[in-house]
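_Full entry_
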Amino acid sequence: MNAKVINLFNHFAQRSSQIMGSAPVFLASVFSVVLWAITGPYFHYSESWQLVVNTVTDIITFWMVFVIQNSQNRDTRIIHLKLDEIILSLERANNHMINIDELTDEQLARLEKKFKQLTPAADPKAEIPATKIEPEDTGNTGE
């Protein structure tokens, strides 16, 4: 897909997410629903009256699914990059942890089990020892 189109969509999704998550838009949606409910008697609660709100809400929901997913994907990528930077900057950190987002669920479960074994159970304020996670635990064998 064209990079310009992708950048345009990303900009649209970010801006839409900011706008749609704002208090004025929420209040406008509450006002719209109240207005729709008030007009019910005037339109005799007809099928057309119900169809209007159903159609509008379906379309908005459909669009927002993509906007929200794009926003979450971007946020997740940013968090991963920040955590990677932290891991790389700490001497005691295990650099094999950088690419764990590419592991299978089984590998993640094994890794989680190892970390639970490293965590001091009795004293939650006790210092956690430097991780002794081996490359094969993370699936990063260096090859």
The helical segments are 3-20, 23-38, 47-89, 105-118, 135-138. Residues 85 and 98 are 9 Å apart (CA to CA). The chain has five helices and no strands. The two ends are 31 Å apart (CA to CA).
